[in-house]
Specification:
mainly alpha
Length: about 170
């Protein structure tokens, strides 16, 4: 259910995500992992969806010990870094955003099949654009396109990436 809550909030349905998380917290009030890690992670995702990137960064700060799967058998995979990177993009801090996405790209083995891995190429490109480094941005976008070479051509994120890339030419 937690994965569904994160999926809903990342898809723009923060209200449905909150209902799921509230239900989990009610059902499992003594679950420390839920209370200390999963709930703040969900809150940060909701803050990001509600255009509160600075608050999301603050919320995610407490989760540094758990990023990249550290701190427990369940881990958080790339969630903490990915959300923090997205928050830094919203704050127009390209250097900090790039650092978060590069951490993900440097540690693929944490979650080899994660959607966040390939999207980190795209977001790294966006971070380089914010820094004014068009050459690195083009390379990051090209890495994203290589990973998505077999994707349906009308996927919205791919169309958006192609439009952004065209502006770099």
């Amino acid at each position: 259910r937690y994965s569904a809550a994160i999926a809903f909030v990342l898809a723009g349905d923060a209200a449905k995500s909150k209902v799921i998380m509230d239900g989990l917290n009610h059902e499992f009030p003594d679950n420390r992992w839920l209370q200390l890690v999963l709930t703040p992670l969900s809150q940060a995702a909701q803050q990001l969806q509600n255009n509160q990137p600075a608050e999301a960064v603050k919320t995610l700060e407490a989760l540094r010990p758990y990023e990249m799967g550290n701190g427990g058998p369940n881990g958080t995979g790339f969630d903490v870094n990915y959300l923090r990177g997205r928050a830094y993009l919203r704050l127009l801090d390209g250097a900090k955003a790039a650092a978060e996405f590069q951490k993900i790209l440097d540690h693929r083995g944490v979650q080899p099949a994660s959607f966040e891995y390939n999207l980190s190429h795209l977001n790294l490109g966006r971070a380089y654009v914010l820094q004014g480094d068009k050459a690195k941005a083009r390379t990051a976008y090209q890495d994203f396109f290589a990973a998505w070479k077999d994707a349906d051509p009308d996927v919205p994120v791919l169309l958006q990436a192609k439009a952004e890339y065209a502006k770099l030419q």
